[in-house]
Design a protein that fits this description.
It is a single chain. The chain is mainly β. The protein contains 1 helix and 5 strands. It has a 5-stranded antiparallel beta sheet with strand order 1-2-3-4-5, with no helix packed on it.
């Protein structure tokens, strides 16, 4: 019920890694760190005071959108577990 101070830091980038059939292939990555400042011993013992999250993807143009291979590791605030996720996706640009 009380508010508490938090610290958040994120570093991210996106860069072209290749050109295939006149289309750019992109790599992006980001790292996020979250910390509750002055967390209670109960929050610290539950390991909920600090979280780290890393995500990376490679995007391949395909028609009006792109296909992406994605990887992420870590947890965001309020996540219970540290998870590794691999995904294949398609995004469509309007």
């Amino acid at each position: 019920t009380k508010t508490f101070p938090r610290f958040r830091c994120e570093v991210a980038f996106k860069t072209k890694v290749a050109r295939l059939m006149e289309k750019d292939i992109w790599f992006s990555a980001s790292y996020s760190y979250f910390e509750e400042i002055g967390a209670s011993s109960l929050i610290k013992s539950a390991k909920l005071d600090q979280q780290q999250y890393f995500a990376a993807s490679i995007e391949f143009p395909s028609g009006p959108g792109s296909i992406s291979l994605n990887y992420s590791n870590g947890k965001l605030p309020f996540d219970k577990n540290n998870e590794q996720v691999y995904a294949l996706g398609y995004s469509f640009k309007f």
